[in-house]
Amino acid sequence: MKENTTPHRQWAGCKRILVVRPDNMGDLLMSAPAIRALKQTFDCEITVLTSSRGALIADSIPEIDDTIVFDAPWVKTTSTDDYNEIITLLRNEEFDGAVIFTVYSQNPLPSAMMVYQAGIPLRLAYCRENPYGLLTHWEPDKEPYDYIRHQVRRDLDLVSSIGAFTADEQLKLEVDESLWPVIRTKMSAAGLDLEKPWIILHPDVSEEKRLYPVAEWVAAVEKLSATLNCQFLLTGLQPNEALIQALESYPVYSLTGQLDIYELITLVSHARLVIAVNTGIIHIAAATDTSVLVIYALTNPQHTPWNVHSKVLYFDIPEKLRSRNEVVRYAYHISAQKMLPPATPESIAISAAALFEQADVHSSSVRGHNAALLSNQ
After folding, report:
1. What is the DSSP string of 233-249?
2. Given this chain, do its domains 16-160 and 177-359 carry the same CATH topology?
3. Residue 340 C-beta-side C-alpha neighbours within 13 Å
4. What gap in Å lies between CA 49 and CA 35, rounded to an integer?
5. Which of 102, 173, 210, 250 could form an SS bridge with 287, CB 3.0 to 4.6 Å?
6. For the chain, which ranges sit under pLDDT 50?
7. What is the pTM of this model?
8. How many CA atoms lie within 13 A of 217 on its CB side?
9. Spatial distance between the Cα atoms of 270 and 285, rounded to a whole number of angstroms
10. Between the CA atoms of 231, 192, 310 and 153, what dihedral angle is there, to the nearest 10 degrees?
């Protein structure tokens, strides 16, 4: 960990910092520890500029004070907002500085141009080439050619270059416990027995290339059902009818499309285990200290669960669905050459069973610790 507790003299007086992360929920959540470092070091107000999808989770990240929603044309979105309007809005906000977080395969210069045109005086980002006047502070981007860091570490290292530091590097989300009775009612209505153990299955993805085959899901559930005496709760945005029908003979119940983001966060916080592809819910699990098994498509290797009890199993992407981005392709070839644990139905069942049993010990320990704290009050 690169640690520098002395704030950069130019940034020391910043009281309003704009964080630019125009991606998905999981991307913004992985930037949260770095945002915490900015807030704690500079004692500043944090406004995040993010996409409409990223904005869904912004309210649940404690360090964020305000959110500006902008679907940028240089990020994959279903629609884009007016560029000139966002420039005017940012200029009127009079931010003291802007920090741009990116994946190593993304070009930061469109975002850098945006904050430059908005007149924000201090501008920080990674960049592969010299950005000259577009950024006042830049870190040469050596990923993935020299090394690959976890995304959380990458973002923390960026802000450490201006002296921003936090001792707490965990992902954290605010959990609304008042929603739990409503969620339990939905679970019961779906057919789940609330008195028996359950785990979350989240097959939903934002990109087709991360889809794990239906037949493999079914085989994994079949093996898990024979091993564990538990129920399975399906979550996601859109119902996968083929998967739901294929799992009819197993204790699988669906809340797909029935939960908003706040309910999903609360549900995950109560789960003993989450089994999911590499998408936003695995970072929600990390932020709520919930054990997670990831069925990980060989895409961005730096987006695994951060500092949580977890296991990652990998599967390949069909060639026709692989990225055309040459930086991503380079990282893919490096990952494909490694002996990574495969995501087979057998390995999923074995890993899930181990996590399930270990999670019970962990939750029992937490309950005992909390009880001891209460008895001493």
Report:
1. EE--SS--HHHHHHTTT
2. yes
3. 22
4. 12
5. 173
6. 1-4, 364-377
7. 0.93
8. 25
9. 10
10. 160
What are the residue boundaries of the structural domains of the chain, listed by start? 16-160, 177-359
238 by Cβ neighbours in 10 Å (0-12 / 13-18 / 19+) ranks as exposed
Closest by alpha carbon to 161, among 41, 304, 64? 41
- At position 258, the amino acid (one-letter code) is Q
Cα gap 315→318, rounded to integer Å:
10
C-alpha–C-alpha distance, residues 26 and 89, integer Å: 26
* pLDDT tens, position by position, 103-150: 999 999 999 999 999 999 999 999 999 999 999 999 999 999 999 999
Q: What pLDDT score does 241 carry? A: 84
| 120-144 as b/e: b if 16+ CB within 10 A | bebbbbbbbeebeebbbbbbebebb
Query: Is the separation of the CB atoms in 215 and 190 below 8 Å?
Result: no
**Rg of the Cα atoms in the chain:** 21
The DSSP output letter for 361 is H
What CATH superfamily classification does 177-359 receive? Glycogen Phosphorylase B; (3.40.50.2000)
pLDDT at residue 361, as a whole number: 52
Q: CB burial class (10 A; 0-12, 13-18, 19+) of residue 212?
A: buried
pLDDT of residue 363: 52
- Residues in the chain, how many? 377
Q: How far apart are CA 49 and CA 202, in angstroms?
A: 28
Distances in Å between the Cα of 156 and the Cα atoms of 3, 122, 135 are 9, 18, 18
Q: Domain 16-160 carries which CATH code? A: 3.40.50.2000
Measuring CA to CA, which residue among 94, 75, 96, 69 is closest to residue 15?
Answer: 96
- CA separation for the pair 81, 83 (Å, rounded): 6
Does residue 256 contact residue 235 with C-beta atoms inside 8 Å? yes
Q: Which residues partner with 97 through β-bridges?
A: 17, 122
Neighbour count for residue 352 (Cβ, 10 Å): 26
